[in-house]
User: Fold these one by one.
Assistant:
Number 1:
Amino acid sequence: MTRFLIRRIGQAILVLFAASIAVFLLFFVGPGPDQVARTFAGRLGTPQRILEIKHALHLDQPLYLQYLHWVGNLLQGNLGFDYYKGQSVNTVVGQALPATVSLVVGAAILWIAYGVFSGVVSAVRSRSLLDRGFTTAALFFYSMPTFVLGYTLIFIFAYELYRVTKFFPFSSYVPITTNPWQWFVHLILPWLTLAMVTAAAYTRLTRTSMLDVLGEDYIRTARSKGMPEQRVIRVHALRSALTPVVTLAGLDIGTALGGVIITEQVFGIPGLGWTIVQAIGQQDLPIIMGIAVLAATFVVIANVIVDILYAVLDPRVRLN
Amino acid sequence: MTDPTNPLVMTDSVSLASRLLLQVSDLRVQFATDDGVVKAVDGVSFSLERGRTLGIVGESGSGKSVTSMAIMGLHSGKNTTITGQIRLDGEDLVSASRERVRALRGAKMAMIFQDPLTSLHPYYSVGHQIMEAYRVHNKVTKQVARKRAVDMLGRVGIPNPAVRVDDYPHQFSGGMRQRAMIAMALSCDPGLLIADEPTTALDVTVQAQILDLIVDLQDEFGSAVIIITHDLGVVAEISDQILVMYAGRAVEGGPATGVFGQPGHPYAWGLLGSMPRLDIDRVDRLKPIPGTPPSLINVPSGCPFHPRCGYRDEVGGDRCATEVPLLREIAPAHVAACHLTSDQQRSTWARLSEPVSDLPETKAGSLLASSDPANEVQS
Ligand SMILES: Nc1ncnc2c1ncn2[C@@H]1O[C@H](COP(=O)(O)OP(=O)(O)O)[C@@H](O)[C@H]1O
Ligand code: SF4
Ligand SMILES: [Mg+2]
């Protein structure tokens, strides 16, 4: 188990290293030092300022020193300085992250709960009306673009229902620290949007996985012991069937934490996705790089967590 | 006297009737599939006394597993139709509620399967799985169940059971896994143990050990055993009764000595011919069965074995292809479903089994003396 984890964490570090090289090559080496400094300085960059930046980023030194300087800062948790906004990237990201986390965690609870529930029901009542219903719903939401669903929900709940209730806001975000209830109310539609488009994959995966597991010999054994069917499904079958779902959930959450671009755009949530879109529009390179590095880190960490969960779930992984 | 609807059930004595543990009458199991109705079991009857052993033999696909799963009530699909009677201790399981059959499963009847690795849940410890089996039917604390699990593991010959109880299936060897399965099956002391090819997936070296264990525990627990296997040597050695299945039907049945010593059905001759034996002469004449088992969706007309049978001409006409042979008593309590007359059956078998040398005629015992687990019927 320990060796397994050490190996996986080692691999994760390698992946992060490779990602950092890629980002470095893409943003520093590709354009060349002058261009980088000019871009960092933004539209208002004077020659004087560009020189300063060149020096601050060690752009006047050999490539490997530039890289070490940059990575050294990253390792200390310093994502760099945004000359355009005159703020550290950490501050900008720190303001955006809670919104994205709020959106992703709430939506993930919904899509996992619904996806697993509907998948299990579909598998256990395979070919029933309920199964067909869940399958149709899954296909419908799976094929629906996020922004269409998002605007549709806004149209129905915020616009059409406006005369009945002003409960649903059109958009924007309220931090949980400002007003927890408003935070919740503002996130209902974004949560639903993100959860519905994501849940389809979970319904299908859980259904397939559950059907596979229900055909396993050890399920027949559990039944042959006289275990009640409910227990066979909830304890013996579900535990195995969830293994692939855990993987998918880990990767989806890891990816989404790096920013949920469309949902954040549609609902005006100033999270990482929204911020990076703004930054791209403004050619705000430090922010783009900072969020890219952060997103890659989330994905890698999610992978490690998935591996740990695997080991917790499956003794064959844990004890080898 | 035998029951005319069920020639394998002896009804002449009250005491015998009370000794009967399992009585299967005209069992039919059908699966509706896209290709048609699979008649996996088609009118099978047999019975089993307490503490006795019934061997079910037949090529792969002849309905042996489907029969045993029907007894256990493990066919749950909506496309499955089961008719007939399965009486366990006098109680009919076919008409019983699902919940009632579930309560009996594991408690009064238990089953072990072919592949002990896939039959155990990889995520739960062996002990946990045995405790679970025990606690489904006994309202006891975890500590009590755990003691039971350790005790059972010890009785099936797992060394150091108090420690190994916490091991996971993948930490056990193949033979130990099957031992653990047996421990689990017997944990509630069921009157009936069904072993469906319990040694087929195991190393040749441990097959005999597992069989010995089943026989020993059968004595100890007094359970009746249904053993399903390709290995005729095994069945001959440990069974009291034999049922030969072909295409979902019972084609021959009776006491093991009778079925192996004086088999009446050409299919049984073929099965015996598939066994390599010490006396080479007979191998020349007793050939393995040519061809493959029929589809159970379109079972051949008349005798289901007729497309593969070499004795049709002796019956004459096209009777074998048109008229279904019924089970007929060819010796006391020994039945076979074949149009050949008893005289024809006897003389043919005598010719087939007659040793060329001057050795006295082979009896069931010596015929099947070899219990080499490699003696498998082709499947
Ligand atoms: N659930 C099912 N649906 C359709 N056909 C089945 C099902 N279970 C078994 N069968 C068919 O029934 C026949 C008998 O199978 P089985 O009892 O497993 O044979 P065996 O004698 O080798 O144990 C086979 O042809 C098999 O394909
Ligand atoms: S009834 Fe005919 S076909 Fe069937 S086993 Fe007997 S001789 Fe062969
Ligand atoms: Mg079978």
Note: Chain B has 17 helices and 14 strands.
Number 2:
Amino acid sequence: MENSFAEQGRWRDIDNLLSRPGNIVGPGFEPSPQLRQEIGEFARVLVVGAGGLGCELLKDLALSGFPNIDVIDMDTIEISNLNRQFLFRLQDVGKSKAEVAAKRVMERVSGVNITPHFCRIEDKEINFYNDFNIIVLGLDSIEARSYINSVACTFLEFDSEDNPIPETIKAMVDGGTEGFKGHARVILPGMTPCFECTIWLFPPQVKYPLCTLAETPRTPAHCIEYAHLIKWSEVHSGKAFDPDDPEHMQWVYTQALKRAELFGIAGVTYSLTQGVVKNIIPAIASTNAIISATCALEALKLVSGCSKTLSNYMTYNGVVGTHIKVADFVRETDCLVCGPGTLIDLDISTTLSQFIEILGQHPKLLVMKSSITHRGTNLYMQSPPILEEMTRPNLHLPLHELMGGVPDDTIHASGMAVRDGKKTSCLRKLRVKFKGLPDGTTEMGTTSVCKELEPDLN
Amino acid sequence: MAAESKTKYDRQLRIWGEQGQEALEKASICLLNCGPTGSEALKNLVLGGVGSITVVDGTKVEKHDLGNNFMLDEASLLQSKAKCVCAFLQELNDAVKAKFVEASPEALIEGNPLFFSSFTLVIATQLLETSLLKLDKICRQSNVKLLVARSYGLTGLVRISLKEHTVVESKPEHFVDDLRLQSPWPELKEFAKTIDLNEKDPIIHKHTPYVVVLIHIAEKWVDTHGGCLPTTRQEKKEFKDLIKAHMLDIDEENYKEAIESSYKVSIPHEISSQLHQIINDSAVEVNSASSDFWILVAALKEFIENEGAGEPPLEGSLPDMTSLTEFYVSLQKIYQAKAESDCRVMEHRVRTILKRIGREPDSISKSFIKNFCRNARKLTICRYRPIEDELSSPSVSELQKYMTDEEYSFSVSFYILLRAVDRFVANYNRFPGVFDNEIDDDISRLKTIAVGVLGDSGLHGSTLSDDLVNEMCRFGGGEIHAVAAFIGGVASQEAIKLITNQFVPLSGTLVFNGIDQKSQVLAL
Ligand SMILES: [Zn+2]
């Protein structure tokens, strides 16, 4: 708990913003000298990622008056992180990023409490994410962003006129950088475009046609990818390539060099080999600082209303001069993720296992190996084995019955989908509607849940 | 470079290379005032491995410093701020020499101007106008680069001040490849002739590089169009149709690439206006005091007017394109050979110029000349007016344009208000809005002063939004950490560009707009 006497004057600068009225502020801004303390008491912030952006975000949020922060990251510290991930030292190499980052910020900024989670984002129950008022993303992968986005969107509920219910909007702030460029955006599911609405902003990763690699290589990258994708499996039958094993990397480099010599191609180096194989994105401290600061400031504004918020996508480009642009993107009204959900018509006799099969074949969804939840209740879970076993009997029951006999409702499926040729975890919101019910019960808005049929899992 | 440094700096070496890193490691940076803005700027540079830092600040750590500066902790209270910040910065990278001077920047500017002459770059943060103008003069006299950074509530600014910054490796992201399809040289034409576009073997046909396809078809076109390449929209469309007519199959990637790149045969045979301006700059009349850059530009001008026949030296690189390996590698060699021969001509001219101006003919290295030739089309020069000139006679037409452009109105208002704040401090010896009970009075005082600033800037009769004046007083001179981290981040980014001599630095004053994030660069 904050000792207000000892803290006297410490937060002077931020308190000016929070305690004084202004005319260019966010909706519902109620300035008061207690506002910072109130925010401290109710606001819980989750930082996803404790890397280049994550380290900055934790510092920025801690010094923006957020005393309760959680951070989740599955990675451990590497030497190549040290040019920008300023919370880590050489002796930390190999330790959990989330744990070390949390400890360092707490040591420096008294009164701040940071809870680290050293695990994959998919390892947490969906409800873990519902405990936070705001989720700030400092990630470098499209898949992870997409997953967190879909999780945040599952909490979104719509009223009978398909308008989002404000209390269910889980605000997100997302940042990303590459070299001297970066972006920061505010996502209010149901209000502003979600990550999936504007997925086109992220161009797919460069992939070389296999025939180019095998028959007509021209660039050093072609030679490297040949060694990495073709030659490796030819020579090491069954042994998986590990990009973090220096011996494996050295082997790919040597093979790539041989191939380059054979074809008269110049420019294969060890560093380029690593870059191509691991798809390394160049990263520096300054760009991360710029983007994280923008995200943290937006988080403060979203929670306190002390100023207008970014609407809704900011890009920074410092390659030639300095260019900062704000774009106001619009939501896709039929977005699969932040919309009211993909409508699926079912017979009342459709069983849960048939339903899972339908999801795998549905042209818009193509979600394989789905786990199904309805209003927080697990109907079927693919894993862990104990939950799978417990929910397996449900597979043969009609979904209509499992959902408590309602005529229609929202249901969530989490499974695997293919994006850019890669399998990724995904979470989809579905609106199930049952056919063949007696008239008068198919109206929208019926949300009563029958609890008797809920499998006893909790 | 040591293996450990190579690994540690890997992600940035991929951006600015070992040469850029070497420049950083040689740089000595002086920071004035180590509040959050300055501390954050240095943090990013220490992580990147600059040679040395010197932190100058005369104040002691107070309670409110712990609420916005990460480079301080509870134990720092009442101690020298420069000393504490310096110690925490040193922890980030032991390869950096970190020093501190416990003195007020204002006192150094007044009493010891020579202090600044040994640095590569001075980063002046949170400095008021009067001291800044003096510092700018000092830095310009001793050829020290100056970066100005200021955070103020939800606004702030970053600007650069120096006479001239010349960049060879500007590394723009989108730049059209130097293929010379509109004017292929004999060896390139010769090579194109060895490949028949009517080749029956489908493998060869679909692996003929688009460069060859375009040279053939452009030649055909020229023959039937009185020696001219396609220029009008209609002609360009017909040209594309002509390419399409040569396809054996609609899936031939190389022909698709040829259609996409067909505009490259119509690129006018002339240098860009930016390059034109550079080779006609008065600095091209070189003498023994000229920099290597300008000597190279003088040689470039001669090259373009003579051997280049209107073109700069060939860049020599070939983008990847669908092709048999054999064709591609042969083409690559042809481009490289031409680039090398252009470079040799340039080298000869450089040596002759050096002799003429009384310098050692070998005093510019071959690798520098080669790098210059490779980047000749992308040369960039940044010049900055003395800050005093901008403040006393800003471009009124630009200011007026900004005042009426909705996208710029917040930023330009903040620019004026930040100047008004400095005048306010000169009058009242404190920032507006520091006392809750004087806010209303401060608002009208600041407004009056801002009207004065507007008038002095040639904007008589213009007004600023009352809401923004109100905001300015609401900030109470505070340094918000997130804003400071942004401003410090931009400052360090610009510092890297200035020190590595790569990429293009900020051209004007970046005014941060923390309200809706529509920050703008003002060119005044
Ligand atoms: Zn969406």
Note: The first strand of chain A starts at residue 45 and ends at 48.
